[in-house]
Amino acid sequence: MNKPNNGTVRNWINGVWTDHAGPTIDVINPATGQVVTSQPDSSAEQVDSAVSAARSAFSSWRTVNPSVRAQHLHAIADQVALRIDELATAVTIEMGKPLDEARGEARKLVAALHFYAEEATRLRGSIVPNADDGFSSLVEYEPIGVVAAIAPWNYPLELIGWKLGAGLAAGCTMVIKPSEYSPGSGLLLAECVAATELPAGVVNMITGAGQTGQALTQHGDIDKIAFTGSGATGAAIARGVAKATSLSMELGGSCPLIVTETADLTEAVRGTLRRAFRNAGQICISINRGYVHTDVYDDYLAALAEGATRLVVADGLQTPNADVGPVVNQEIFDRTTAHIADAVQRGARVIAGGGPISDLAPGLFLQPTVLADTDQDMLIMHEETFGPVIGIARYTDLDEAISQANSTSAGLAAYGFCRDLGQTFTLSKQLDFGNVAINNVDAGIINAPYGGRKGSGFGVEHGREAIDGYLHVKHTRIRH
Ligand code: NAD
To answer: Can you give the residue ranges of the Aldehyde dehydrogenase domain (predicted)?
Structure first.
């Protein structure tokens, strides 16, 4: 097997690492500004050969016994487990998260692949009663077909791996496009797949930016598009599909937090620090905006500002105790500083951080920033920033706080901290989000369905339910 990551990333199509003579796209380490590798800017013809490979593999893969598909998934998970450090290093170099966090992502991917392998063995159908004697209705679930899986860079292993796990468990074949910011880690994952006995063409991976993604999603022989990324790209994909195609859209959001007067403040502050600044705030379920009851507002803010100031911001490859790395690109760097400036100009107080760390330039490092006394008109309180910044507003009435939390188009994740059972149920029932976490900040876990609503998309990843998105139902009515 020739290796993809020998300086230049290659496509993996029909079980072969393909040479590429056309244009390429550089990948830049956001901590240093240095070019680390380059990738094929794949053409529509290359997309077509990957889709053809997936189509021809589908005819036999769809009939493979689910327990055998499970063995393949366990084997892929085992290969990933052997290469945790290598995968994590590639992630850190390409998108900047601290190495230990990247190792955690790779380990969670191993667990996710084993989870989907187990779920593959539990697929089932049913026989439903008929009103007429002498008939039986058989209800079966079959793999939907060839899947185009398109991923962003912020969890470059998991966001590919969840689709791969659920898709293969269902019996689908895949053409995967990693983000142009993280192709090397994506193709290392393809190497893990290539090291197993999985038949050629069941999984294919091609690199490139938006044009490649567009050629893939508009290809006429795709049965499902599994997309994770921004709302703008998701809308463009939905507008451009070539034929009736199953879609799942995991999009962005602006995730709120409500801290009531009954909250354990130590836990609330610990949770906020983790979910606002982890991955430099570049998580679709990052806490972007907080609503804190007036009785605990000052204490909460003081502890949050102190905690944010103590976070170690550094190159996650060189600094073992780094908490926060750089943001991935200039666009996010500029948007974050613009959102901070907008809030300050409209009257918010900066109580921690406030902007770029010029000593670490050209690395794209920003201080973890806490803005107090924000209001809903500020960009930080209703648009997705995707950087290490949080805005906090004071509230007196819980219904009003919930209404502000629900007031944006976002519907992915919301958080609450409170020790009152009534408040817990009020938050759980009234927050209009696909994922709500109370007294913890892990809104997405592999065992339970995870998906957005409103402008944050539709369809789910995680849980048994994720596999349903890769299946379609067949009813056979039999007269006997
Ligand atoms: P993005 O939309 O810019 O890119 C995502 C992927 O789409 C990339 O692979 C890109 O090359 C591809 N793409 C771009 N234009 C395309 C087109 N016209 N057709 C097809 N594919 C195209 O998003 P990003 O900057 O990589 O990721 C950040 C966004 O992802 C944030 O909004 C974040 O909230 C969201 N996100 C959501 C979840 C979730 O689970 N809901 C998880 C992670 C990230």
So the answer is: 17-475
